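Subject: N-alpha-acetyltransferase 35 NatC auxiliary subunit

B.,
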Amino acid sequence: MADLSELSIGPDHQDLRQQHQSSLPIQSKSYRTVTQDITSDFFVAASGPSLNTGQLVKDEHFTLFEAVGALEIMDPKMDSGFLTSGECVEHDYNILRELLPEEVIGIMDQMLCFEMTWHMGHPLSQSLFTSAYIDRLLWPDPKTLEQARFERDKTPDLGNELLHLVLRAYCLGLVKTCDFVRRRIMSECYYEEEDFVMSLYHRRLLDDFDVAKISMKIEDAMAYVNQETESINRPLKDALLNRLALRNMLLSAVQLDGFLDHQRGKLWEECLKLLPMLSQTSKLGVPSENSFSMKIQRKLASSVPPRPIVKISIDEALARLSGICQNGRDAYRILDSQAGTRLMVCNIDLWGLTEIVLTYH
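Prediction pasted inline below.
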């Protein structure tokens, strides 16, 4: 058995270590940076006959990545951290402020417009993800449905039901609808990325949450609006109920299971019936432009700086949604066909994708 005492550092070993350390040069703890202005030398070298137009002098380790990175700095079109004079990074908007019924209607209509711009092929970063309410709902990533709320680290304000109950339920249904649409498109054998942008920028669209519970939240919001008689007059109440009912119907129409095919056609038909009233009551809403901002894009996991928000009018959005509902209804009419001679091939533009399907003629 080996003698462990031989492994210890005895007096002789300590002397050798001290002699070795004393022979090393003493390192100074103070550093001094010497700078030299080479601006004039640089311009002389660049303007001389030794460097012609089109020639490039660079270090062998200076690659295209460094070159592009150098161009990004302080360039507002390429630098995601560039701020103009007096501009702050965070979006200055009080998301917990009390909302009027007209403001809730306006925000719902704005979100519907941005939802349709996503179906038109624009990314979520330039549409729905610019909403302060959607951002607070999805980030940090909620682990339960109860965590998916606007206040997160604060106690809910019991006197602000239009925000915490009505608008929250609408946003939950909207996000879950987008989740079903995205998953359905991803399940296809082929889709064109130029027609539909799938990127979520490190966000999740409530994909782990039960659709039935979200639908119940919307129904609870509708029950509250029906019972509220003091702060909401009849026209505003009807407008809110119309939008909540449409959101719940769209959520049922696009969910991946839970309905038979012949029932889905009827759901799309019911959605179509709700659109005229939404169009008539759109003038009651008061838009909240401050609740949408390009600054929120800086919080997304994206390789590009903030891009302009893509906006469409409520009339354009309703026309787009009407086409989606009609195509969704007609796509299931094939089940009512009794003979092959009554089928025709047509193009259905559903969810921004052109598919060839058989429809009832």
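Residues 1-14, 20-28, 345-361 have pLDDT under 50 and may be disordered.

T.
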